[in-house]
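Hi support team,

I submitted a single chain yesterday and got back a structure, but I'm not sure I'm reading the token output correctly. Could someone confirm the output below corresponds to the sequence I sent? I've pasted both exactly as they appear in my results page.

Thanks,
R.
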Amino acid sequence: MGIEFNITKGLATIGATISELEGMDRILREELGASDFIRHYDSLLFDVLNSYGVVTRTLSPLVELSSAEAFQDEFAPTREAYERIYQAALSEPRVNAEYTYEKYLQFRKLREVGTGYPPLKRAFSRLHDFIDKWIDNDIWLAMTIDTLLKQVQRLLAEVAEMQKSDGDAALLMYQSSIGCLQPYLQIIEDRLEELGGRLDMTPVYAGCAADAAR
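Hi R., thanks for writing in. Yes, this is the structure output for that exact sequence:
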């Protein structure tokens, strides 16, 4: 499949993972309420959510170029801004994963995690699979974000090259690729807002760097 499909697939996958996280989060908070456990849990989530924040902060300026006028006026500086930040953005999910790994080692020792109560037992099983596969050991989330941002950089370069000879074709290429990402990005933004609003700390979806809160 072409790069456009792979970009959309990558962003949709990221949206699916945060939707899974939001679903299990509802159960844990409903069943456990305000407690010392929740404070440990919030700390665990902070770095995970920051990785999703990387995606929204990096891609949001690109999807805002939806009109022909905005594309003509802002594509070049927006692309330049993306080139300046995306390399640094690639490393953030891996750094966040390292923090999560250390926190999860302690988190698994909490008494609540060993519960036999069916709803909680299932939620903790889902959380373990999520952390193990997507965050810690297999780091699928970091790799998916890495691939996504690199593919977007490659596509932007192709659009810029086409713009030199045919502005209308470049606009059409952009609108039919980056311009189609808004619904998938919105899913991530909405879940970040929901999850971040439940944390007992500064929400990362507002663009707060993880290091500033540590």
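A quick pointer for reading it: The chain has eight helices and no strands. Let us know if anything else looks off.

Best,
Support desk
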